[in-house]
Specification:
Elements: H1 7-18, E1 24-28, H2 31-36, E2 52-58, E3 62-64, H3 70-77, E4 86-91, H4 99-106, E5 112-118, H5 123-131, E6 139-142, H6 144-147, E7 155-159, E8 164-167, E9 171-172, H7 178-191, H8 196-221, E10 250-251, E11 257-258, H9 275-289, E12 294-300
Parallel strand pairs: 2-5
Antiparallel strand pairs: 1-12, 2-12, 3-4, 4-7, 5-6, 7-8, 8-9, 10-11
Length: 301
């Protein structure tokens, strides 16, 4: 069954819920709001304190209800368990995009990078999860390096309430729940006590290098010989667009909250910025336009 919700709606709901974590301060960074100095745009990030960059790529989940679904049949044939109904989301095919290779390169142990997907697919379910602050608990988080390099075939992550598999040739995946993600973030904060403002320039360099490695591996996998210089993160002409906009939840006639639908991104010239704000915007821009991920800065309260 096709999802009734958009990646934008799910990402909006999940991101705003993560902001309210009790033990941590999680601030999504939106490039255009940094320029305007608005709350939530980046100025509420304490650059003189330790902080961990969290990169999330949001996925929609398709609900599979038949035992004839190929993931179910493949897992059962191996003697594994994947209960029906279950959910799945696709990993972008390598023939279509370098997306997975780029995220895999970024997920090198020095950053926290995850695909995030919901255990629901209907509009009324996301509304219910939103109203109960239950979006994160009903999500799973999959690190690209847990998936590893892929070939040019179609691949899905398939999951039920307790089992997660990478298909087409099934193998068990290690994933995180919201509690596991919070524990991971707390561990990273203990290990990385450098003030965030001091870390940002090296983070930009790491992201440039991750893009270079990812595109190199993608070109070599395609067998096209020496890769072309397709890197865009070190160019000065990246268009600034709004990725997720902090918008009010719209109340329906029944009083139930509904999530907003995306508006078309509008390209514009970035306003001049200086110092750490400019570097923070650069990190957010690269995350959005190269890695197609939302940057969230997580700090201790």
């Amino acid at each position: 069954m096709k999802p009734e919700i958009s990646e934008f709606s799910y990402g909006f709901a999940l991101t705003n819920e993560l902001v309210g974590w009790v033990a941590l301060s999680a601030a999504p960074v939106f490039p255009s709001l940094i320029e305007e100095g608005k709350a939530g745009g980046g100025y509420d990030v304490k650059l003189d304190r330790p902080g961990v960059p969290l990169f999330l790529q949001f996925k929609r989940s398709h609900c599979m209800v038949r035992r004839t679904a190929k993931e179910h049949q493949a897992v059962v044939a191996l003697g594994g368990t994947l209960n029906v109904p279950y959910y799945r989301f696709p990993i972008t095919e390598a023939t279509t995009s370098d997306q997975h290779e780029l995220l895999l390169a970024l997920d090198d142990g020095s950053n926290l990078v995850f695909y995030a997907a919901p255990r629901f697919h209907r509009r009324n379910e996301i509304n219910q999860a939103w109203s109960r602050s239950d979006v994160a608990r009903r999500s799973l988080f999959v690190a690209p390096r847990m998936i590893g390099p892929l070939d040019d075939e179609q691949h899905h992550v398939a999951f039920d309430g307790g089992n997660t598999w990478l298909c087409s040739e099934p193998r068990v995946l290690e994933v995180l729940t919201n509690r596991g993600l919070e524990d991971k973030l707390n561990g990273f904060l203990k290990e990385h006590d450098q003030p965030l403002g001091e870390r940002l320039p090296s983070l930009v360099a790491e992201m440039h290098e991750a893009e270079r490695r990812g595109r190199l591996k993608a070109e070599l996998r395609r067998g096209s010989g020496m890769p072309q210089d397709t890197s865009i993160s070190d160019r000065g002409d990246i268009p600034v667009v709004e990725t997720l906009t902090r918008r009010s939840i719209v109340e329906g006639e029944s009083g139930a909250a509904s999530t907003p639908e995306p508006e078309p991104p509008v390209s514009r010239e970035p306003k001049p910025l200086g110092g750490e704000a400019a570097v923070l915007r650069q990190v957010a821009d690269i995350a959005a336009h190269v890695f197609e991920a939302q940057l969230i800065i997580v700090q201790p309260r």
